[in-house]
């Protein structure tokens, strides 16, 4: 198994590995297309909400936002990985799988088949192909994302930008803050995070 450092300038929110068979001790496994099309999003949100409840019922808006953000983190990691390995986004979409954490259900790793291990990695100009692939996947995902709570178009657009900026320009999002709220403040004992747009 080969771990992929995408680029000195990029930070993969979901670590990518070539030739892996899932993450050891991982929870549920998802095909990339199940993330992209949301085919198992109801189960994913239910598992996430149950994990967040900790003895009380967590608001559904938290799980809905977390799963949307996690899904786009999978998408951006796959787009950057495809660019770095000189692969078309379609090949990655057809072959990649995602391992979730067994108790919190965040995406723990992005796995590609061993046939891609021979592809030479590159570290320059990855954004030119990664960004349009990510944005197209994000558009497809959000078009089919139907949580059981309202999610505004501003929140959806903000998640797309936050996830891209965190991967492509980590220092920029740290300085400017987030455009979308993660709603973590709604969990018992939690508060708004430092970059929350609700603070502005």
Through-space gap between termini: 44 Å
Number of folding domains?
A: 1
Mean pLDDT: 81
Low-pLDDT windows of residues: none
How are strands sequenced across the largest beta sheet? Answer: 1-2-5-4-3
Main sheet summary: 5 strands, mixed
Question: Which features would summarize this protein structure in a list?
Answer:
alpha+beta, globular, 46% helix, 9% strand, 200 residues, five-stranded mixed beta sheet, 7 helices
Describe this structure in words.
By secondary structure, this protein is of the alpha+beta class. The protein has one domain (2-194). It is built from 7 helices and 5 strands. The chain has helices at residues 32-37, 41-53, 60-84, 89-95, 127-144, 153-168, 170-176; strands spanning 2-3, 16-18, 29-31, 97-100, 107-112. A 5-stranded mixed β-sheet has the order 1-2-5-4-3. Helix 3 (60-84) crosses helix 4 and helix 5 packs antiparallel against helix 6. The protein starts with a strand and ends in a 24-residue tail after the last helix. The mean pLDDT is 81.
Q: Secondary-structure map with pairings?
A:
Layout: E1 2-3, E2 16-18, E3 29-31, H1 32-37, H2 41-53, H3 60-84, H4 89-95, E4 97-100, E5 107-112, H5 127-144, H6 153-168, H7 170-176
Parallel strand pairs: 2-5
Antiparallel strand pairs: 1-2, 3-4, 4-5
Short description, anyone?
With 200 residues, the chain is α+β, with helices and mostly antiparallel strands. It has helices at residues 32-37, 41-53, 60-84, 89-95, 127-144, 153-168, 170-176; strands at residues 2-3, 16-18, 29-31, 97-100, 107-112. It has one domain.
